[in-house]
């Protein structure tokens, strides 16, 4: 059961796919709590971007905790339907924008400056083949210049996915949760 952890929607259950459908991998509650504990003081009144949004649980958590706005970027029609349902159920429609786009090829459709950017790309495709989408998504964040001077960029990836240095980003923190790694970046000075 996927729940909102804190804020005005605390305890509300989000609609997701059945547990045996692994096409969407929502962020685990323990990991989500830890990440939001780290960024909690940056959330009120922030502009949040949720890339590869899945069911929207990360962006909805931000809205529940007081984010001014959230853009949910996702390519899957099934996921977009779940995000729309969850955002509407919580009456966040006026602070949410749901965009169907391929984060790697159509990033220009979500260009704006954000205070917090989160990306949780899928680890594998439908044939269980590794995708390695983190690095190209990080490069798009820099290429399209969506970070403000003091923004935080958070990238969730599989522990085996290689991610090297990205020009324009300063990597300042790493957290590990089982086979998942969460990388924290800020704009390079």
UniProtKB/TrEMBL annotation:
It holds the Pfam family Cons_hypoth95. Gene3D superfamilies: Vaccinia Virus protein VP39 (3.40.50.150). GO terms for biological process: rRNA methylation. GO terms for molecular function: methyltransferase activity. InterPro entries: RNA_MeTrfase_RsmD (IPR004398), SAM-dependent_MTases_sf (IPR029063). The keyword Transferase applies. This is Putative N6-adenine-specific methylase.
């Amino acid at each position: 059961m996927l729940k909102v952890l804190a804020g005005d929607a605390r305890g509300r259950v989000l609609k997701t796919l059945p547990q045996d459908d692994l096409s969407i991998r929502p962020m685990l509650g323990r990991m989500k709590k830890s990440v939001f504990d780290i960024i909690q003081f940056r959330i009120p009144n922030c502009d949040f971007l949720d890339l590869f949004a899945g069911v929207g649980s990360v962006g909805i958590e931000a809205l529940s905790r007081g984010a001014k706005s959230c853009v949910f970027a996702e390519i899957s029609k099934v996921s977009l339907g779940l995000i729309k349902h969850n955002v509407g159920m919580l009456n966040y429609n006026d602070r949410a924008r749901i965009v169907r786009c391929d984060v790697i090829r159509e990033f220009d459709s979500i260009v704006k400056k954000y205070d917090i950017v989160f990306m949780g790309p899928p680890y594998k495709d439908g044939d269980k083949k590794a995708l390695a989408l983190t690095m190209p998504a990080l490069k798009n964040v820099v290429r399209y210049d969506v970070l403000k001077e003091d923004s935080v960029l958070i990238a969730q990836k599989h522990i085996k996915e290689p991610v090297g240095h990205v020009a324009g980003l300063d990597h300042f923190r790493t957290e590990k949760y089982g086979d998942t790694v969460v990388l924290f970046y800020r704009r390079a000075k």
